[in-house]
Write a structure and sequence with these properties.
The chain is α+β, with helices and mostly antiparallel strands and about 270 residues long. It contains nine helices and nine strands. The chain has two domains: about 120 residues, no CATH class; about 130 residues, 2-Layer Sandwich (Alpha-Beta Plaits).
């Protein structure tokens, strides 16, 4: 069986032959992680056996969630170690080439683009922000302080019992809609503050409670590429807003620095 190439990512070619990570085993826990230079940029990879990482075998393994979790965690941990020592273009989990020649062909095809992307990412970190809210507390606050809702409640109080029931149901729906708007407005206002300290940003889909494992509802999910000199200011905004709104049912979570998963995209022709 031949050896395939499992690619972790691309980095600037290290000076003086320095290895950004040393003596670490690859994803198969057998072959060591290596780097190979291509005119100013380097691939970080390990060899894997075709018998274990060929296409058909891999399709079966990726149906095993325990295997996927273990190997995906390894992939992420290696990327984190690389990121600590070099500017990184991270590759997706299970990016595999059938030979070093295939890897070389890919690098040659995208060389200039990769080189430019590494230059753009240098001196920057990815940080993620997730905002959660106590939906029950938010809904109650909206019901208590929204002037339109107060007026509607006063109108309903003057109606007959039958009308009161129907109009109260409509009002409940309206309160939920206003709470939705409040969540969006809160995240958007915070986002507008944070993009002043980042060079790129993206707003992502919110996760449900089954994924987050939290009682609170996720209402904002975003990522930012932040220059190193702005990281302190960026995090200070989040810390201050967290303190300011902690009694209002809002929870702000900043995590990072991460490999630039959201900002190291290669344009494919």
């Amino acid at each position: 069986m031949s050896l395939y190439v499992y690619l972790y990512g691309m980095i600037p070619a290290p000076g003086n032959g320095n290895h950004p990570i040393s003596s670490l085993k690859g994803i198969d826990n057998e072959h060591e992680i290596q780097i190979k230079n291509y005119e100013g940029i380097s691939a970080v990879f390990c060899h894997v056996d075709e018998s274990e990482y060929g296409e058909k075998v891999l399709q079966e393994k990726t149906n095993d969630m325990e295997w996927v979790q273990e190997k995906a965690f390894h992939h992420h941990e290696i990327l984190m170690k690389i990121r600590e020592n070099a500017t990184l273009i991270p590759m997706k989990f299970c990016t595999i080439y059938q030979s070093e020649k295939n890897l070389e062909d890919m690098v040659n095809q995208h060389h200039d683009q990769m080189k430019a992307l590494i230059d753009q990412l240098e001196g920057k970190e990815e940080w993620n922000l997730k905002v959660y809210c106590d939906r029950e507390q938010l809904t109650q606050s909206v019901a208590d302080h929204n002037l339109n809702i107060k007026e509607k409640k006063d109108e309903i109080a003057q109606m007959s019992k039958g009308r009161q029931y129907l109009e109260s149901r409509k009002l409940d729906q309206y309160v939920q809609q206003e709470a939705d708007k409040e969540q969006e407005a809160f995240g958007s206002a915070l986002h507008d503050q944070l993009i002043k300290y980042s060079v790129e940003d993206t707003v992502k889909k919110n996760w449900n409670r089954d994924v987050t494992g939290k009682d609170e509802e996720m209402c904002w999910n975003s990522a930012y590429l932040v220059p190193l000199e702005q990281v302190e200011n960026f995090l200070e905004i989040i810390t201050n807003e967290n303190e300011k709104h902690k009694d209002s049912g809002w929870i702000l979570e900043a995590t990072g620095p991460w490999p630039p998963y959201h900002f190291a995209k290669l344009n494919e022709k």
